[in-house]
Amino acid sequence: MTEHAHTRLRVVRAGIDTYQQPVVYMHRDCPVCRSEGFAALTRVQMRVGTREVIATLNVVTGDHLAVDEVALSDAAWQAVTPEAGAYATFQHPEPAASAGALRAKVFGARLDDADCLALMRDTAANRLSDIELAAFVTACAGERLDHGETIALTRAMVAVGERLDWGGGPVLDKHCVGGLPGNRTTPIVVAIIAALGHRIPKTSSRAITSPAGTADTMEVMAPVALDLAAMRRVVEREGGCIVWGGNVRLSPADDVLIRVERPLDFDSDGQLVASVLSKKVAAGASQVLIDMPVGPTAKVRSDAAAQALAARLTVTGSAMGLNLAVLHTDGRQPVGMGIGPALEARDVLAVLRGAPGAPADLRTRALAVAGALLELAPGTPPGQGPALATQALDSGRAWAKFLAICEAQGGFSEPGEAPFQAPVVAPRAGRIAAIDNRRLAKVAKLAGAPGAALAGVVCTLRIGDPVVAGQPLYTVHAQSPGERDYALAYAQTHTDILSLETP
Amino acid sequence: MTEHAHTRLRVVRAGIDTYQQPVVYMHRDCPVCRSEGFAALTRVQMRVGTREVIATLNVVTGDHLAVDEVALSDAAWQAVTPEAGAYATFQHPEPAASAGALRAKVFGARLDDADCLALMRDTAANRLSDIELAAFVTACAGERLDHGETIALTRAMVAVGERLDWGGGPVLDKHCVGGLPGNRTTPIVVAIIAALGHRIPKTSSRAITSPAGTADTMEVMAPVALDLAAMRRVVEREGGCIVWGGNVRLSPADDVLIRVERPLDFDSDGQLVASVLSKKVAAGASQVLIDMPVGPTAKVRSDAAAQALAARLTVTGSAMGLNLAVLHTDGRQPVGMGIGPALEARDVLAVLRGAPGAPADLRTRALAVAGALLELAPGTPPGQGPALATQALDSGRAWAKFLAICEAQGGFSEPGEAPFQAPVVAPRAGRIAAIDNRRLAKVAKLAGAPGAALAGVVCTLRIGDPVVAGQPLYTVHAQSPGERDYALAYAQTHTDILSLETP
């Protein structure tokens, strides 16, 4: 398409955070709108110098923007990083190369390697609108991606991002399928594995739909927003790291997809597998342990679902050249006492320090995961993984390693405590029959987690525990009274989050 | 949920057109953002006086908004219509009542009446985000809505909007499934039907993915943005009208869905039927004729697809109490000479006036549709519909009625002509073998249609016509040189829009 030099506009900063979506603001009477036929919500391709971005147009009808200016949202500004006084030119974007593949998938066709590559390339380059991304995620939901498509999507996600090379030798990694509040084994597992001399360069995500991701929790204790060079220095020095994956551009298409998966709050087995394994392959992993909690309110709800997902993970992992094992774990109730970034960090630290009162369930699960992961590594005598993990933890070597990793990442901090705390009490006596993970997580989110790092829920009760009327079932932690009240209001209308049976 | 009086903000106008999507802008340091834990792209429920709207939050990081202010996009402003100096309060929106139904449909469950009602109620009230709407449209794409769901969705769309009551007696209506550029029979059919003394209160849409909707074309000749009272006056006086449906709130949920269907450029049989028939039922129609063009580049591409869609229309129409017939028509090539609002209006006027050189195909099709519709009406002798229609047109009664309807709607205008016109010529001699409706429509859209009312394409050639090298195949009409050049650039890279065979 031709570009029109006469339609260039002076770039100014809008000072508006539209999340990751690039938005440009033009005056209704600006020559670009008029001559190019752009209207509100048009997608436009903007070039500033050598950089390009596809952005959504919002049309300014007021008088705070000149007709020869274009204002850029924060995301658009970061994409083109204009110099002072820069000018931008505009054109209609070419239709995304993947538009045909998206349409075909929506109408039930199968995606091949080329389709997946086109889709992930356009996704990573932000050439698809949020509406198109939502259509793609929906078209792949449930069982609508088969094994072959899952492998193709995984390969494509790897292909469009960076791929780390650790120079040969085993590289260990782990992942939890999620849905279990407080199941924050990663910092403990990484510390154990690295303390035993293995390499485990762990990248983690922030929360998508949960009250805390591992990156959110780790960030309470040490910086996690490391770039690739910094991450590499940490791993070379300490053998392991626990960093946020967002700065290292591993599987960037997945990061973009998460932008729509988060508000939709649904994904699919195929996309879950592609998301998880593309990150592992891109991070250079060779041995991967998947922790898969199964329970009626976990992400994986039944044994049948667990088998299906495990099969897909194993088939795809094998196709990607990974030595991968799936550990099915109990997903009926939360792990540890805290739910929320800082509250989970406190549980992690208690286990690593061997503190009295440290949550035994978190310790047990971390040792099981670390043990199973060790068994995948060359050199571990069969059946000896759990014992080796336990020795590393009980000897204090894992705690020392954790502190060393934190220092290498920029320095350790002790988690703080939320200023507003309020109990939710048992309406009557009884015995805990079940715990609704999703609704308990919802309370933690309404309390402010993960945005408010100190916010969340503390719950020490477990299935089978007896309670008396008026006894606290769990405690809401919040950084503002408004958020505390939201969480309490929800808790008061959902009295069966911890459901009681008459003993 | 509790509302927090201390978090009220002074309402100002942002002066930003975000299309129909309500957006509110708050400063990063404003008390609502801080105390309520709102972050960029959060959905917030805003109340101003007694009016409420759910809007997307954009966070202002610059200094052009005070911390105690909230700026409203045009759509948000219209939703709450604040008085001078008004204050707004905010809360987290309740999860949409239809969230569970949406999720279930995405994962393959069947929608029942209650699901559809919840979904359409939330859709009409703008309680679903564009991302959620895109997920819904995708989850219903292709064959994913069965007949029962289609009926339930149609009923729900009718239930959440206005429903016109014409006081008994037959009310005629027609609809074209579309995909055939230039097939602008509606103004002619309405004029014929009304001239014969029947009632035909026609509401039409603007273009969704085409270069012109009937409302766009009609607007070139007369005002169409009438409210319900004005529409009623026109119909009471003249028996018929041709107005834009957007101001009369018939099936408002459908109007919202179109917001995401337009950029996605796909819909489904089920949604198409629900969309079309909900509008007909809401408009009070009792006799409905569906014009269904079938051709390789029309919306309906094969006889099998036509049969399936016709069956769905008939079953749903019957369930909704309509006397409905489907007319399968030739959809292999455009109708008339013009594609684009004003160019199609000129064809319509030529047929109504009986002008020499009026497009014969448009005349023939309009008479076929009007004839078939008349046969549905009580009192028409069987087989006499086409003859009655032809008499009304050839006698000049239809033209007189059309002018009277235009006057009643606010006054007739003669269409203008585009200032920039350029031919696309045949690269070689040959005979027209096929015409790609979609790509020809795309040229018209790149030329500016329907936003630029005079823009589009004029094409007088038809399948079978011989051409010589260098002869114009079609002519691009544009209101700006930029748009003309876009259209020509596309035409030059797609030389088979009119494909030639060696004679």
Q: Which features characterize this protein?
A:
Aldehyde Oxidoreductase, domain 3; Barwin-like endoglucanases; 503 residues; homodimer; EC 2.4.2.4 (chains A, B); alpha/beta; 3 domains; Pyrimidine Nucleoside Phosphorylase, Chain A, domain 2; four-stranded antiparallel beta sheet; six-stranded mixed barrel; disordered N terminus; 19 strands; transferase (chains A, B); globular
Percent in strands of chain A = 15-25%
Please tell me how large the radius of gyration of chain A is. 24 Å
What value does the average pLDDT of chain A take? 91
How would you sum up the major sheet of chain A? 6 strands, mixed, barrel
The CATH homologous superfamily of the largest domain in chain A is named Nucleoside phosphorylase/phosphoribosyltransferase catalytic domain
Oligomeric state: homodimer
Biggest sheet strand order of chain A reads 1-6-3-5-4-7
The coarse overall form of chain A would be: globular
Distance between the termini of chain A: 74 Å
Number of domains of chain A: 3
CATH topology of the largest domain in chain A: Pyrimidine Nucleoside Phosphorylase, Chain A, domain 2
Q: Roughly what percent helix of chain A?
A: 40-55%
Largest interface: A-B, 64 and 63 residues
How many helices of chain A does DSSP assign?
18
CATH architecture of the largest domain in chain A: 3-Layer(aba) Sandwich
Unreliable spans of chain A are 1-6
What is the CATH C level class of the largest domain in chain A, in words? Alpha Beta
Structural category of chain A: alpha/beta
Number of strands of chain A: 19
